[in-house]
Fold this protein.
Amino acid sequence: MNVPDISVYYFGAIALVLIGLYAVLVKKNVLKILIGLSIMETGVNLLLVSIGYVSGKSAPILSEGITASNAVDPIPQALVLTAIVIGVATTAMALSAAIILYEKYGTLNVEEIRRLRG
Amino acid sequence: MLKRALAIITLLIIGYWLAQGLAGVPFGEDKMVVGKYYLEHVKEDTGAVNAVTAIVVNYRGFDTLGEVTVLFIASTGVGALLWRKKKKRTAKTEGSLVLTTGVELLFPFVVLFGTYIFIHGHLTPGGGFPGGATIATAFLLLYMAFITYEIPHRAFEKTEGLAGIGYVLVGLIGLAIGGYFLYDWIWQTWGWGHDNIGRLFSGGFIPIIYTLIGIKVGTELSGIIDNMLKEGVSE
């Protein structure tokens, strides 16, 4: 099993996704699980942006000497801009669900919430 | 303990898979296909120098209308989930002297900076969504500093609705003039700002739409903050 040769940006993105997934799998507090989901989302966004990067080129703002030939791919950045906003929206929804859970059960521990069902 | 060890083994396997998959994607190489077209034509097509905002608002404007709708549905959902007959602010500790004085001083400047971000969306990094979030931060600061503060609900709801209607109206005017929804009538038909690309008065309808989006996002996120910070009280 040889270690695949990948860029440090891809490695960082994968590491962020795995850290978030660890929190989702292991943690019991709903808020910590939501934080884990946010970290995963950051990892995916970093991966998208770094796939669009082109070595030695600049941000796709075509002023101050930057022309079409020395700018990076703008599409992943536009998509990530959308993804961040949708992420904020879903996080807000999930947090209000967590507020209701706490009001109903008096705890944010997923195991205790399960036991109180019925 | 066993659960944790199992989780770590699963994560390592998933990480190895991801790394194997990404090993075939070269980093830092030119992989542009459509991006090339956008970069080469963005100035004459849209008049904006920032290719990212040109794509978000002009080339994929319909997509952004959907994005704004998602944010609106989320804010409605938060309002519906946290709905109580009577809601009040129940915070008990007043903000410290540093916080209250700082907020009083900084509030106009934070709002000004948010406005700057969304007005210059076609020139600098940023745009309506970050600008709106900055404005909402200003209101969050007010909420944290003063325990009785509340946003003016009626005015905020009306502004939000008007901004949303404005976005659709700009698109419909494009439909009437140019033949398709969100046609850039200011740039293509009227030809405003053709000789000052790279300055504020250029970019067709991008600054207008981003101003509307900024106002809408700012009021919407302030509403979400308001919903989350207030608690239901029984009569």
Summary: The helical segments of chain A are 8-26, 30-51, 74-105, 110-115. DSSP finds four helices and no strands in chain A. The mean pLDDT of chain A is 86.
